[in-house]
Amino acid sequence: MDREQAKEILLGYQPGSDDAVDPRITEALLMAANDPELGLWFEQQQNADAMIRRGLRETPVPADLKQRILGERNVVRVDFRWRKPVLAAAAAAVIVLGVVGYWTSRRTSQYGLGAYSKAMVQYVMSPYPMVAQARSFDELRQVLAQKGWPTDFIVPDLLRDVTVVGGGALQWNGHKVDLACMRESRRGLWLFVVDNAALPNAPATTTPRFEMVDAVPAAVWSQDGKTYLFTAQGDEAYLRKYLP
Fold first, then answer.
1. 108-118 residue pLDDT tens
2. Domains in the chain, CATH or no CATH each
């Protein structure tokens, strides 16, 4: 079993379930315990899944949900004697489209831009290890290159004069994420960069889009095939000072 096969297996693993008795899952878990890169990916995957589960548990279910669903049902009477083949084909098409839509929606909710932004912001808003010590973006690129992480990210012009303190080499769904950690006027600033291929709904524009992520302001944009996420200890006006 190689690393990619282990990732495919671990994507469906649920802690506390009977999954661990499956010999393939047991082997994948053992690989994660002994492979630092796979272990880091698995830890981040489990943290992201835990956040999604918390969000679902905290979402209230309307008391009249069942009645509303039943009330919207339409009863259709069909003469099946001559329409049966056509209807069977149409039903099959609807089922296929429904399954594709379901999995596309599920993948976006679990691994899309919203989940990614939340995981990254929560990562830096709590105590975290800074694996790369650096005093400039060039020095940070050198450290990331030594770790096998991409270094072709573009730093916004207005961020080039801030104080760089280090960075991180993270992963999201098997994709490498660059993290630049900065500080200005006793405030922390963070820039995350990941390939657009890591996100099923990556931003489609180079113009930063501002949003609140767990009450923390953030900006996201896409440039040269990469998604940029910028956040800081401040408000939206503070973020805008460093972006075009």
1. 457 799 999 99
2. 3-58 (no CATH), 130-240 (3.30.200)
